[in-house]
Specification:
Dihydrodipicolinate Reductase, domain 2; Rossmann fold; single chain; 14 helices; six-stranded parallel beta sheet; 36% helix; 2 domains; binds nicotinamide-adenine-dinucleotide
Length: 383
């Protein structure tokens, strides 16, 4: 395995693989454009070749696969080159900034025949897996509503100041919807499927000196009348992480490391319109979270997929769905329109390009690197 981009998350993947904590993977090469990072990496892993640019790593013949852990916009570019070089690709989330670029990447991946995965590590959380089964098995009945308050993505100003690319339209291409919330947007669509339309309000620089949004509220509608409300922010402390899905046969709530499933004896629609009894008995089942390291699970699954054909937990081809939700939310916030899906990808890419052209990264405070240590602590968060 090679890793392109050895910053916050790339260095965590490098440490896990080098430390033999990932079954089926061996670290063979690293790459970062920053000389300072290269010096740090070389000191940590003296026996691993370190490259200054991705092309050299991809052409080295040292790796069978790469993790792409650079700033979002470069994921499709580097991933496409890796496929062209005959390598398997595991991209960090989001798979890109625009659906347009990710659809192009998907086409290249398909033509290559190589494995294509995305780091949606929260898919490996037991509770979200149970939620998915309850919905897909019909145990919840027909879904009526999903509400997710996911505001525990708190970030301090120094986090945004820690990299010039962060929180700018030109460097990052978005804010909380594009950087922190992709995990939750992916889980939303993984559990409930894709809605028919999205409208959104995005608040730009509400809590931080940044030009992109640090708070967003989405309202989505489904073909069957189901609605979804999704609220996210990097400005609430303490934040909330509460997912509630209500169906005609009951509801589920995930909060504080626990899933509570309340099942109705009689489907609510039938009970409301036909039942002669006044009581609809409830059965409550609770499921507890278990300790897990989602990044390592995704890495091991990716290796098992290549080595023995194990199905991917998070195929790269799924990544376009969560990106569709965030692209549509931006388009709705910028135009005031309700965006019908599938959306006009080119229109969004064009509007984003115009925003990026007017981007002013210098509006942020000076860059600092001191944030790296406390940022790493976030990976231990219980969901
Ligand atoms: N799955 C997760 O839980 C998770 C967590 C954090 C970050 N991420 C994602 O990982 C990506 C990187 O985030 P980060 O926080 O590590 O950022 P970062 O800025 O800390 O690291 C990015 C690194 O990539 C290097 N780089 C930039 N362009 C490059 C290029 N063309 N070739 C080689 N190296 C290049 C930079 O020098 C830097 O060291 C983002 O897309 C982010 O959304 C995912």
């Amino acid at each position: 395995m090679g890793i392109v981009g050895v910053g916050n998350i790339g260095s965590a993947h490098a440490a896990a693989i080098y430390g033999a904590r990932v079954r089926g993977m061996k670290l063979c090469a690293l790459c970062d454009v920053s000389r300072k990072r290269r010096e740090q990496i070389a000191a940590l892993y003296p026996d691993i070749p370190v490259f200054a640019d991705a092309d050299a790593l991809l052409a080295s013949g040292l790796c069978e696969a790469v993790i792409v852990a650079t700033p979002h916009g470069s994921h499709p570019v580097i991933a496409e080159k890796a496929f062209a070089a005959g390598l398997h690709v595991l991209t960090e989330k989001p798979a890109g900034v625009t659906c347009e670029s990710v659809r192009h990447l998907m086409q290249t991946a398909r033509q290559s025949g190589k494995a294509f995965g995305v780091m949606f590590n929260q898919r490996t959380n037991r509770l979200f897996g149970i939620a998915r089964s309850l919905v897909s098995s019909g145990a919840l009945g027909e879904c009526k509503r999903m509400v997710w308050i996911i505001t525990n993505w708190y970030r301090k100003q120094c986090y945004y100041d820690s990299g010039g690319w962060r929180a700018t339209w030109s460097g990052e291409g978005g804010g909380v919807l594009l950087n922190q919330a992709p995990h939750n947007l992916d889980l939303w669509q993984w559990i409930c499927g894709m809605p028919q339309s999205v409208r959104a309000v995005c608040e730009e620089g509400k809590y931080h000196r940044i030009e992109v949004e640090d708070e967003a509220t989405l309202l989505a509608r489904y073909a069957n009348g189901m609605t979804a409300v999704f609220m996210t922010s990097t400005g609430d402390y303490p934040g909330t992480n509460r997912l509630e899905i209500t169906g005609t046969k009951g509801k589920l709530v995930i909060e504080n490391g626990k899933l509570v499933h309340t099942a109705l004896a009689i489907d609510e629609r039938e009970f409301c319109l036909m039942a002669e009894t006044a009581v609809n008995p409830l059965t409550v089942t609770e499921y507890a979270d278990e300790p897990y390291n989602g990044h390592i699970r995704i890495l091991e699954n990716f290796a098992a997929h290549i080595l023995s054909g194990t199905p991917l937990i998070a195929p790269g081809y799924d990544a376009v769905n969560e990106l569709t939700l965030s692209n549509a939310a931006y388009l709705s916030a910028w135009t005031g329109e309700e965006i019908t899906l599938p959306m006009d990808d080119a229109r969004f890419a064009d509007m984003l390009a115009r925003r990026a052209a007017g981007s002013d990264p210098t509006a942020k405070a000076h860059e600092r690197e001191s944030v790296q240590l406390d940022y790493k602590d976030r990976w231990n968060t219980t969901w």
